[in-house]
């Protein structure tokens, strides 16, 4: 009986030919170390790229003025109040192919308006896409309403905030999204050009 027990014990042990294989490849030839290194490395590369983008562009959403933000806001509000007092509104016709702009003004009777107006088109996020043109008084339209005309060298594309002003005297504003006719009011409400 003891002889049988010895055979069972000896058969339970693995033979010498079956041994565990030890991995002999160096660490840099393995997949998992590189995978673990790649995760934080990609975050560093993305952070450096984001920093580069931030340094290449300016923060054009902030209005800068030597007078300070409060003075600019008060000046704009006073100009809008003056436009309300004068009963001003304007309809702009913008030809996006040629860049031609015609402004038809309406106001209270016996109001003398400047012979030169400024139209400023501000892009919501990129100051490099802003455009400013001077509009000169032209022949009144068929209804007798005074008109001003000007021309964009490069017509604006996309959404812009439009401001029509006569120096710091009065100001009309609205939003333009590429339509050929739109209206400017002192309060900034714009429409498609219908009165």
Structural overview:
With 195 residues, this protein is α+β, with helices and mostly antiparallel strands. It has a domain at 89-184: Immunoglobulin-like. 28% of the residues lie in helices and 25% in strands. The protein has helices at 2-12, 31-56, 69-86; strands at 89-94, 100-106, 116-122, 131-138, 147-151, 160-165, 171-176, 181-184. The chain has an 8-stranded antiparallel β-sheet with strand order 7-6-3-4-5-2-1-8. A hairpin with an 8-residue loop joins strand 4 (131-138) and strand 5 (147-151). The chain is elongated, with a radius of gyration of 36 Å. The relative contact order is 0.14. The mean pLDDT is 80.
Notable characteristics:
alpha+beta; elongated; 195 residues; eight-stranded antiparallel β-sheet; 3 helices; single chain; 8 strands; Immunoglobulin-like
Quick structural summary:
This protein has helices at residues 2-12, 31-56, 69-86; strands spanning 89-94, 100-106, 116-122, 131-138, 147-151, 160-165, 171-176, 181-184. The protein is α+β, with helices and mostly antiparallel strands and 195 residues long.
Q: How many individual β-strands?
A: 8
Average pLDDT across residues?
80
What is the level-2 CATH architecture name of the domain at 89-184?
Sandwich
- State the helix count: 3
Assign the structural class, choosing from mainly alpha, mainly beta, alpha/beta, alpha+beta, or little secondary structure: alpha+beta
Principal-axis shape: elongated
Q: Termini, distance in Å?
A: 115 Å
Over the alpha carbons, how many angstroms does the gyration radius reach? Answer: 36 Å
